[in-house]
Prior knowledge:
2 domains; 3-stranded mixed beta sheet; Ubiquitin-like (UB roll); about 35% helix
Amino acid sequence: MKRNKPYFFLVFMFLVLIGVSWFSYQRNQAREAENIEVEFFQSPRFLDTTLVNKMLTQNWNVKSVQEKESLDLSMLEDQLKSIAEIENAEVYMLPQGELSVSITERTPTFMIEADPPLYGDSNGAVFPYVSIEDLNLPVFKSETSSSSLYETASLISKLTNDPFLKLELETLFLEGSTYKMRLKSYPFEVILGNANTLNEKIEKLKVFCAFQNVQDTLSGYEQINLTYSNQVVATTP
C-alpha cells in the first residue's frame, strides 16, 4: 500500500495542475473579454464607450469558453451595425488579445416629425431623436409614414448644399408627390414640386428672395410656385 502512495500523489498533483490551468484559462479569457478598445471615427453624439462595451462583453460572455481564434468577429460587427445610430463598425483582435472596435455614427441631416420624432441621414436611414443644442436641422413632414425617405434625404442634401438654403430651410413638406418648403426669414410657402431642374428652382427662389429684401411691392405673398419654367408664380391671400 505504501508503494502506491507516490502514484496516488502524482495523480493528485496532476489533477490539481489541470484544474489550476483550466481555472487560469477561463479567468484570462474573461479578463481579455473586458479589455475592449472602442474608438469613434468622430466625436460621438448618440453613443458612448460604456454602451458599446456592455453590448460586446455580453456577446463575448457567451463565447468566452471557446478559443479566441474561433470568435466570429463579423457577427459582432453585424450586431453593432444593427444599432440604428451606427453607420459602420469594424472589429479587430489585437495581438495582445484585446478587442478593438472602430465605430462611425450616422450623421443626422434632418429631423422627421413623428411620434416620437426621428432623425434621418443623407441615405434615408432613420434613428431615434435626442435633443442636441448645436444641431439646427430642417424638419420633414409628410402626409404618410409609408413613403420612402431615400428621395427626401437626397433632396434635402441637395437643398442644403446651397449656402442660402442651408441657413434658410426650416421645413420640407411632402403632400402626395409634391414637395413644399418653409423658410426661416420669409413668410410665404414655396412650392418646389419634385427634384427635377432643382438648380434652376433654387436660383429662381434666391432671386425672388433678393428682390423681396429690397422692394416692398413683393411683400404680402402667401405662396410662390417654382414649378413653372423660367418664372416664379406668386399668389396673395
